[in-house]
Amino acid sequence: MPRFDVLTLFGAYFEPLKTEGICRRAYDSGAMRVQTWNPRDFTSDAHQTVDDRPYGGGPGMVMLSEPLEQALRAAQASRQTAGLDPAPVLLFSPAGTPLDQRHVARWAQSPGAVLVCGRYEGIDQRFIDRHVDAEISLGDYVLSGGEIAAMALLDAVARLQPGVLGCADSAQQDSFSDGLLDCPHYTRPPSYAGLQVPEVLLSGDHARIARWRRDRMLELTQRRRPDLIAAMRNQGRLSARDEDVLADLV
User: Fold this and answer.
1) What string of DSSP letters covers 21-88?
2) How high is the mean pLDDT of the chain?
3) I need a surface site. Which of 1, 13, 14, 76 has the fewest CB within 10 A?
4) Residue ranges at the known binding site for S-adenosyl-L-methionine
5) Distance between CA atoms of 73 and 8, rounded to whole angstroms?
6) Which tens digits make up the pLDDT trace of 92-151?
């Protein structure tokens, strides 16, 4: 039962995760918990200041260490009161390790983490040096803050909790779950706008369907993400039949 404590100036961002969509089942059932902590609540001045100008000059503002540190202490203390060990601290940052399904699966099976959502030009490096265990990135672009990245992680983790998806096999067939992109999917009607559902999917032959789906996954991944194919090859995770399919694509 993972619990995620989120340090954020905008806690309202996270409320729809608990009340909308399939992933709300994770919260309704208690399979996953999220609590937000606003650094402004841990300031000591009348203006609840959480940022200041950067040393050395330059545009923008930098988040102060002290309010973040106090919010972190409160979150960890709350976890301890709930009988949980101190959690690792994750910061969402363009400099972080790219988030992938392997990481998501690990966090889904963990007791959770403290998620730090930066804002402005960033966070005082001394907070990072003292408290952050890992930095995570969604990709090579910059967001206004860490909240969207945190929500992406929480959504991905929530859907892996027991009972959240309608079919337990759904998560196992997702893109990246076995290293490949997912195959195309079709539903009714069998003919739409002059386009037909592939005959094999209507055949009822489960072995043929499984082979077709695997072939399409290989084909799509080779075309769009050859780096994933290379990684699977290096790990010895491609069968001889897989290699034959890939060879025919050249």
Assistant:
1) STTHHHHHTTSSEEEEE-GGGG--STT---EEPPTT--SS-EE-HHHHHHHHHHHHHHHHHTTPPPPP
2) 94
3) 1
4) 118, 138-143
5) 14
6) 999 999 999 999 999 999 999 999 999 999 999 999 999 999 999 999 999 999 999 999
Q: Is 100 a catalytic residue?
A: no
Active site residue 211: no
Q: Structurally, what CATH architecture does the domain formed by 175-249 represent?
A: Orthogonal Bundle (1.10)
The listed CATH number (3.40.718.10, 3.40.1280.10, 3.30.70.2120, 2.40.30.10) that belongs to domain 3-158: 3.40.1280.10
Q: Are strands 62-63 and 51-52 parallel, antiparallel or unpaired?
A: antiparallel
Q: Which is catalytic among the residues 155, 174, 178, 182?
A: 174
